[in-house]
Amino acid sequence: MHCKTFHKKKIVIVFTACLLMMMVLGGRLIYLMVFESEYYQKLAKDLHERERSIKAARGRIVDRTGTILADNRTVCTISVIHSQIKDPEAVIAMLCKELGLSEETVRRRVEKVSSIERIKSNVDKEIGDAIRAYQYPGVKVDEDFKRYYPFNELASKVLGFTGSDNQGIIGLEVKYDEYLEGIPGTILTLTDARGVEIENAKEERVESVPGNDLVVSLDYNIQLYAQQEALKVMEAKEADYVSILILNPQNGEIYACVNVPEFNLNDPFTLTTIENTEQMSEQEKQDALNQMWRNQCVNDTYEPGSTFKIFTSSAALMSGTSTLNDQFSCPGFKIVEDRKIRCHKVGGHGGQDFTHAIMNSCNLYIQ
Length: 367
Ligand SMILES: [Zn+2]
Known about the structure:
The protein has helices at residues 2-35, 37-48, 88-99, 103-111, 125-134, 156-159, 171-175, 177-180, 220-237, 282-293, 296-299, 309-319, 354-360, 363-366, and strands spanning 49-54, 61-62, 68-80, 117-124, 139-148, 185-190, 204-206, 214-215, 242-247, 254-260, 327-330, 333-336, 339-342, 350-353. By secondary structure, it is of the alpha+beta class. The longest helix has 34 residues, at 2-35.
């Protein structure tokens, strides 16, 4: 009797332990299937499918006459697929030689166990073609686009430039990025569990869609001419910078927008405005770059001063308040209400008529 009770107890304990274990395992199963399913599905997908993107050609920037101000150049991205490499030493030696990289850098990337490892991007097409010619398994050469500005410094602060992923950083390149950028495509390759491409498996390819061209009102010739004139003035006046904005007064179209010194759009991260950059902190360098890229025509205010006299004097003539023969005497200042308006000529211009007041740009007469 005593013995039976003991067995019963034992059975209950074992049964309870089993039940608990089943519950824990069941719970874990539910957790994996319900809450973590996305994560594991993604892992499996990553293992079996290798996705490479095809860059879209960015839209060009064209002036009113059809001159291309921003274009694309074909460059290559070199990558390696670890599981496909048959002779790693030969691959490392070849990549070092062709790309001019250190053996350490190349070895680290070639020997890394990953589905695809990028070695270098923005490689010249000739070098990419040379690498492809070796026909080493596991070495991928993908063609790609790099922004190129045929006139280097022309309208640099207006056009702006793009970053390493071809996204606009300043100027028109960033303002119209969504129209210029296009839609990248993808190449999807199926692989087995070891990451080896399945032969004859269908390669899914979604072609990229090129971006739209942007036609601007700038005129290449007027822009170039204005830039030359601005450089002359900057040198003659020893100015820090000179801006010229040329518009069509009928409709406001901008023919030229010059801000010298301009910078080279094909090399925008090299500071040309400061001679000694070695002592500068990263923040100081970035501030100096922002200053170098700054479009003064757009970002700075400028008091019109004497140029505005054309409007006030025209208004005076049109309304009949003044005639060309009106006589006026300038003693160098005039009290109007509570303030004293001074002429730029301290001693005054003396007696003068309307025409001479304009010629002398006399502050008292015109304003
Ligand atoms: Zn005066």
